[in-house]
Design goal:
Number of helices: 16
Largest sheet: 7 strands, mixed
Structural class: alpha/beta
Radius of gyration: 29 Å
EC number: 3.6.-.-
Cofactor: K(+)
Order of helices and strands: EEHEEEEHEHHHHHHEHEEHEHEHEHHHH
Strand content: 15-25%
Distance between the termini: 20 Å
CATH superfamily of the largest domain: P-loop containing nucleotide triphosphate hydrolases
Family: Belongs to the TRAFAC class TrmE-Era-EngA-EngB-Septin-like GTPase superfamily. TrmE GTPase family.
Helix content: 40-55%
GO molecular function: hydrolase activity
CATH architecture of the largest domain: 3-Layer(aba) Sandwich
Protein name: tRNA modification GTPase MnmE
CATH topology of the largest domain: Rossmann fold
Shape: flat
Length: 459
């Protein structure tokens, strides 16, 4: 049982309208009362009430801050413990002084990263998939990614996994009865039952894993490198997609000297855009470093937006890049279509399919919708799935679902070749345990610590 009380700043550091300090634990209310002065007595106050007052240094009597204090008594709180939230003015000095007063007594300690959510998990209010969804909510790069994380935080994935485990425990119980009372067992019926139930579980896991690649994209975004020779419109494309002048645009080749990174949502798809330095041979030392960084970004990219200028003939460097991208996920952008077309595009069309080629004018923002449709087809088969679908996006979840499926396949194969039923039971139980690890029913302390260490301090 958790005995200590923790506190941390829950809002981002910096200037703002308000800042929030969260306190959680058995002494959260009593410790807050030591430095809070108000007409109401918060020690006896009802849960889910807000109180106006001042933070006062109990030693000097100095008024430190004017605040609103919110009380949430356990188990009706985020952590299932007594929780106090102190809303201060949103300045660095104000919130720091209030936190220091709370920690001064020694009965309240600073929270570790993710410890509030960890306590919610340890106290049984949420399971591990719901806890992991909290960090996905914080890091969401698009509305759809946020919706997916919210569904998981509400327990949609947990319900499906728990249903799978319930079916497997029923199967294990059936096998146990047949092991204990073999005289009442009809071997063929038991084998058929094992195949049927394991097959149903595999089918449900397959339905979840089918969403894995899309879920991972929604969660992390598509790492997208904008590539091409200098002055073909790469930085203009970045600015058009971001709807902001993030990159300097001039007629001087080599203006972009480094990789510029921005997140943008295109038709509900989060793109992690990397505007790279123009790839060419150069004697400029600084530009050469930028070109090398561009090549490194290309190696890591999930998608390449290869920009060509149709207002000029293909350059030998263009042809080299075309060969390099032949077998990569690439969209060729024939830019500057608002100008006279000089390029013979037949060479491009001989290497890339019509579905990979988009004609556009970045200057006039023409063709961007076509680009959006092409990316949807490449990564989502043309359409994003319903927002109600349970997406699996976490690598840990994908791995454990894959392991559980393989254990069920092993059980079915063992049944087919006549392996004794008590041996088959081991594979079924392994699958059940692996699904339990997914939701946190059977998980090591070190894994729990690793997961919650990724959270920010006040969460």
């Amino acid at each position: 049982m958790i005995q200590d009380t923790i506190a941390a700043i829950s809002t981002a550091v910096g200037e703002g309208g308000i800042a929030v300090i969260r306190v959680s634990g058995p002494e959260a209310i009593a410790e807050s009362a030591k430095c809070f002065r108000s007409k109401s007595n918060i020690v006896t106050a009802d849960s889910h009430t807000v109180h106006y007052g001042h933070i006062v240094d109990p030693i000097s009597g100095e008024v430190v801050e004017e605040i609103l204090l919110t009380i949430m008594r356990g188990p009706r709180s985020f952590t299932s413990e007594d929780v106090v939230e102190l809303s201060t003015h949103g300045g660095v000095v104000a919130v720091k002084r209030v936190l220091e007063l709370l920690l001064r007594s020694g009965d309240v300690r600073i929270a570790e990263p993710g410890e509030f959510t960890k306590r919610a998990f340890l106290n049984g209010r949420i399971d591990l998939t719901q806890a992991e969804a909290v960090i996905d909510l914080i890091r969401s790069k698009s509305d759809r990614a946020f919706s997916v994380a919210m569904k998981q935080a509400e327990g949609m994935l947990s319900k499906k996994v728990k249903a799978l485990r319930h079916n497997l425990i029923e199967l294990l119980a059936h096998i146990e009865v047949n092991i204990d009372y073999p005289e009442h067992d009809v071997a063929s019926m038991t084998s058929d039952y094992i195949r049927e139930r394991c097959g149903e579980a595999c089918a449900e896991i397959d339905r979840l894993l089918k969403t894995a690649s899309e879920g991972k994209i929604l969660r992390e975004g598509i790492m997208t490198a904008i590539v091409g020779r200098p002055n073909v419109g790469k930085s203009s494309l970045l600015n058009a997609l971001v709807q902001e002048n993030k990159a300097i645009v001039t007629d001087i080749p080599g203006t972009t000297r480094d990789v510029i990174e921005e997140y943008v949502t295109l038709g509900g798809i989060p793109l992690r855009l990397l505007d790279t330095a123009g790839i060419r041979e150069t004697a400029d030392v600084v530009e050469r470093i930028g070109v090398e960084r561009s090549r490194s970004a290309l190696e890591e990219a999930d998608l390449i937006l290869f920009v060509l200028n149709v207002n000029e003939e293909l350059h030998p460097d263009d042809r080299l890049l075309m060969e390099q991208f032949r077998n990569r996920p690439v969209v060729v952008l024939l830019n500057k279509t608002d100008l006279p077309v000089v390029m013979n595009t037949s060479e491009v069309e001989a290497i890339f399919s019509p579905e990979q080629i988009v004609r556009l004018s970045v200057l006039h923002e023409q063709g961007l919708e076509t680009l959006e449709d092409v990316i949807k087809r490449m990564f989502f088969g043309g359409e994003l799935e319903s927002a109600d679908l349970t997406y699996v996006s976490n690598v840990r979840h994908i791995t454990l679902l894959g392991h559980a499926r393989q254990s069920l396949v092993d059980a079915m194969e063992a049944t087919d070749i006549g392996i004794p039923i008590d041996i088959v039971q081991i594979d079924v139980r392994t699958a059940w345990e692996q699904l339990g690890e997914l939701i946190g029913d059977s998980v090591s302390d070190s894994l729990i610590d690793q997961i919650f260490s990724q959270f920010c301090l006040g969460k």
